[in-house]
């Protein structure tokens, strides 16, 4: 009985979560004139696929910007975080603990509070309004959480592996490349999912630090829903298109996410 009640609760929670998604899909498949409060839950008849074509035409340049932004910033964040975690876990130095604590402190600073100085800094180095300026911001802002993930993961790798490689004559980068990196796939998967999702869905940095030609898809989605008379099928179709990349990331890598989080958490 207890398990049956638990499954019933989980089923109701799932339905409650999926109702907005169902409503988004219904609205995206309706003609603008047929979107009313009286027919909001009715299946469209006929199905109006034109919404996705119009939304894609408006989205395509911004979609490409988001792909370049998310993939580049995620790759750079993972590389920087892996090196930071490697140094802090396997090559500790005097003050490394304090440095790590100060780095983690950056996770708790609301980015709204540093938006103005961040804008001034990006403008001072000549990257304001460019995609590379936004990439730099996301890489720097992701350093604390990415470093934390890699440091915790590398701390569970036996030090004897590193020592054996040093005895064989391997240096700092050789050990990282030939010993640490091959064992880092679960950590990289976790970082890739986390960073890609955060960067793809981020809006405030995107709307503040870019010009129209370099804006990502989240800004385009907000503009698509703007105006006095909104054709609600277009923002809903755009929202589905914007959600597809992160959905695909979770479909193909989601099974490795929890495995990567737990990898190395128990020695032996």
UniProtKB/TrEMBL annotation:
Membrane-traversing stretches: 67-86, 98-119, 125-150, 171-194, 236-258
Protein name, per record: Glucose ABC transporter membrane protein /mannose ABC transporter membrane protein
GO biological process, one term: transmembrane transport
Similarity comment text for this entry: Belongs to the binding-protein-dependent transport system permease family.
Domain of life: Bacteria
Residue ranges of every copy of the ABC transmembrane type-1 domain listed in the record: 63-253
PROSITE patterns noted in UniProt: ABC_TM1
GO CC, alphabetical: plasma membrane
Species per Swiss-Prot/TrEMBL record: Thermus arciformis
One Pfam family here: BPD_transp_1
């Amino acid at each position: 009985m207890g398990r049956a009640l638990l499954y019933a609760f989980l089923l109701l929670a799932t339905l409650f979560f999926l109702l907005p998604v169902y409503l988004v899909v219904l609205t995206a498949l309706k003609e603008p004139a047929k979107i009313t409060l009286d027919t909001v839950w009715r299946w469209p008849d006929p199905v109006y696929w034109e919404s996705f074509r119009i939304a894609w035409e408006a989205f395509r340049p911004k979609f490409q910007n988001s792909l370049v932004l998310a993939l580049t910033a995620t790759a750079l964040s993972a590389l920087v975080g892996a090196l930071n975690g490697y140094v802090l876990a396997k090559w500790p130095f005097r003050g490394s603990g304090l440095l790590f604590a100060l780095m983690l402190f950056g996770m708790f600073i609301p980015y709204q509070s540093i938006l103005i100085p961040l804008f001034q800094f990006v403008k001072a180095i000549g990257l304001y309004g460019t995609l590379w300026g936004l990439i730099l911001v996301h890489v720097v802002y992701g350093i604390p959480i990415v470093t934390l993930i890699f440091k915790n993961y590398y701390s569970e790798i036996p030090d004897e592996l590193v020592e054996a490689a040093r005895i064989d004559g391997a240096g700092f980068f050789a050990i990282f490349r030939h010993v640490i990196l091959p064992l880092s796939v679960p950590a990289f998967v976790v970082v890739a999912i986390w960073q890609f999702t955060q960067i793809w869905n981020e809006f405030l940095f995107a709307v503040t630090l870019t010009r129209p030609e370099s804006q990502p898809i989240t800004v385009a989605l907000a503009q698509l829903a703007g105006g006095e008379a909104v054709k609600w099928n277009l923002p809903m179709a755009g929202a589905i298109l914007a959600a597809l990349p992160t959905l695909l990331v979770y479909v193909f890598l989601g099974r490795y996410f929890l495995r990567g989080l737990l990898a190395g958490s128990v020695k032996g």
